[in-house]
């Protein structure tokens, strides 16, 4: 029902375009929860803002297509896109205090989201719909809470208000951008359970963006691992966790703290995600941080190729590379 094909998003700086997202492609089926994971700066949030038409002024989509129910986004007029946004596709932003207006009561902000897409609905209908969605989101004493302001609520309650705003029009797809950031583990579990409940009961598809692999593993069916704007691995979440192929995915999974690692030094991936203006378009994006890089990684950009039931962007899992390596090894043996 929702598809992205070869999406590229660039930032314009000093007359040049710097890709922040390159060649992003995926599909989301009805009732599916898809996870997108990676470190900060890997292009997760920028790709979601591109889907919602909310990119900053110095960023633009330079390539690719996006479809919802088979309809191409580029065929939408600005008015139609505004109608689509918040109705069929909604977004939960990662920091509710920046997503909510501090001068307007939270109930009024939820009602407004309904009234924009139902301009002829009576005010009382909007209020009752707001009460209903607030209850579904697990909020207490909704009549009183309707009249309160964001600063009067806890972090978990503010996040539920943002979720209620995203859900009031019963969208087909929700993009949840780090919905549990800065929440304690108890509230985090409640928010994740709420998303799972809405997915199962309402049939809403969810794109969950996170840097936390534990969260992705808990509620997602499929996962996309992004690094420096590229998809480096994608597929079924259980298979990727049990049989990771890309060095970056292996590093992320190895860095997850577990009870078995108690008292041990946690694994880390050396270095940091390169800034936009330092990203090479002619070699592997993970080259400088990879512990098993070879000369071929400097000679080109690996394709996203099929490995079993999922996809990996790495020369060492590419059948063509393996064949070439075998030929080179045989040639070396012959010469010896």
Write the topology of this structure.
Blueprint: E1 2-13, E2 16-28, E3 33-37, H1 44-52, E4 59-68, E5 71-72, H2 78-84, E6 89-92, H3 96-99, H4 106-117, H5 123-136, H6 142-145, H7 155-167, E7 173-177, H8 185-202, E8 205-210, H9 213-219, E9 222-227, E10 230-236, H10 237-242, H11 247-254, E11 305-307, E12 310-312, H12 319-335
Parallel strand pairs: 3-8, 3-9, 6-7, 7-8
Antiparallel strand pairs: 1-2, 1-4, 4-5, 9-10, 10-12, 11-12
What does this entry show, briefly?
With 336 residues, this protein is an alpha/beta fold.
Describe this entry's structure for a reader.
- Helix 4 (106-117) crosses helix 5 (123-136).
- The protein is globular.
- The N and C termini lie far apart (57 Å).
- The model has no long low-confidence stretch (mean pLDDT 88).
- It has twelve helices and twelve strands.
- It has an eight-stranded mixed β-sheet, with helices on both faces. The chain has a four-stranded antiparallel β-sheet with strand order 2-1-4-5, with helices on one face.
- The protein has one domain (2-258, 267-327): Rossmann fold (3-Layer(aba) Sandwich).
- 34% of the residues are buried.
- With 336 residues, the protein is an alpha/beta fold.
- Helix content is 35%, strand content 23%.
């Amino acid at each position: 029902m929702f598809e992205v094909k070869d999406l590229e998003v660039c930032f314009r700086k000093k007359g040049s375009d710097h890709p922040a997202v390159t060649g992003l492609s995926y599909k989301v089926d009805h009732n599916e929860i898809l996870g997108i994971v990676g470190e900060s700066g890997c292009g997760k949030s920028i790709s979601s803002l591109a889907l919602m038409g909310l990119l900053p002024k110095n960023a633009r989509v330079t390539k690719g297509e996006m479809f919802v129910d088979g309809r191409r986004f580029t065929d939408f007029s600005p008015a139609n896109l505004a109608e689509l946004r918040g109705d069929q596709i909604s977004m939960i932003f990662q920091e509710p205090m920046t997503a909510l207006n501090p001068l307007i009561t939270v109930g009024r902000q939820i009602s407004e989201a309904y009234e924009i897409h139902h301009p002829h609905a009576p005010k009382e209908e909007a209020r009752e719909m707001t009460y209903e969605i607030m209850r579904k989101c697990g909020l207490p004493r909704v009549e009183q809470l309707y009249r309160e302001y964001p600063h009067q609520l806890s972090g978990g309650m503010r996040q539920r208000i943002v979720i209620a705003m995203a859900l009031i029009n019963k969208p087909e797809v929700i993009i949840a951008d780090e919905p549990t950031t800065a929440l304690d583990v108890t509230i985090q579990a409640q928010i994740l359970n709420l998303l799972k409940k809405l997915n199962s009961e309402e049939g809403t598809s969810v794109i969950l963006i996170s840097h936390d692999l534990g969260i992705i593993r808990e509620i997602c069916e499929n996962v996309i691992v992004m690094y420096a704007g590229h998809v480096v691995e994608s597929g079924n979440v259980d298979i990727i966790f049990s049989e990771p192929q890309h060095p970056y995915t292996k590093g992320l999974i190895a860095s997850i703290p577990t009870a078995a690692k108690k008292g041990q030094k946690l694994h880390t991936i050396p270095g940091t995600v390169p800034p936009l203006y330092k990203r090479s378009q002619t070699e592997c994006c993970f080259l400088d941080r990879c512990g098993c890089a070879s000369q071929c990684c400097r000679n080109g950009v690996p394709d996203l190729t099929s490995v079993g039931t999922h996809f990996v962007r790495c020369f060492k899992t590419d059948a063509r590379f393996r064949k070439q390596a075998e030929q080179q090894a045989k040639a070396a043996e012959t010469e010896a």
